[in-house]
Design brief:
Structural class: alpha+beta
Largest sheet: 5 strands, antiparallel
CATH topology: TATA-Binding Protein
Shape: globular
Strand order of the largest sheet: 1-5-4-3-2
CATH class: Alpha Beta
Distance between the termini: 21 Å
Number of helices: 6
Strand content: 25-35%
């Protein structure tokens, strides 16, 4: 997928949307990360009489990591807790996306030290390579 969205990283996933988010949730919970919400947007839109290919997202975080971010710049809470989405496109290919750490760091003028926990690249690589 050609990524036209500044500050967003997108990767293909070898699993269904549900399994992708399941794997992410299980891994995060094993690491002691708090899962704040899991939302199935396809289901929510169906309730409103609309249709959408499969799309779910997970909101998660760790106050020990996110707290210093918000201490440094309270408006950074607009991008916390962290979010990862997975969706299926019209070709039935599944994608996973999240905000790039550098984009969030620059957006809020955060220091590298504080913003490092926002880097999801390694986490997502572990999930996709399981």
């Amino acid at each position: 997928m050609n990524n036209p969205i500044k500050g967003v990283t997108i990767h293909p996933s070898p699993w269904s949307v549900k399994e992708t988010i399941d794997r992410l949730q299980i891994f995060l919970q094993q690491q002691g990360v708090t899962i704040y919400a899991r939302i199935d947007q396809q289901s929510e839109l169906q309730k409103a009489g609309l249709s959408l290919w499969a799309l779910e997202y997970l909101l998660f975080g760790n106050p020990k990591a996110g707290g210093p971010v918000m201490q440094e710049n309270p408006t950074a809470a607009l991008d916390l807790p962290l979010k990862v989405i997975a969706w299926e496109d019209q070709q039935k290919k599944v994608w996973i996306a999240y905000n790039e750490m550098a984009y969030v760091r620059d957006r809020y003028g955060l220091t590298d030290k504080v913003s490092m926990p926002l880097n999801l690249d390694g986490l997502i690589a572990k999930i996709l390579n399981q």
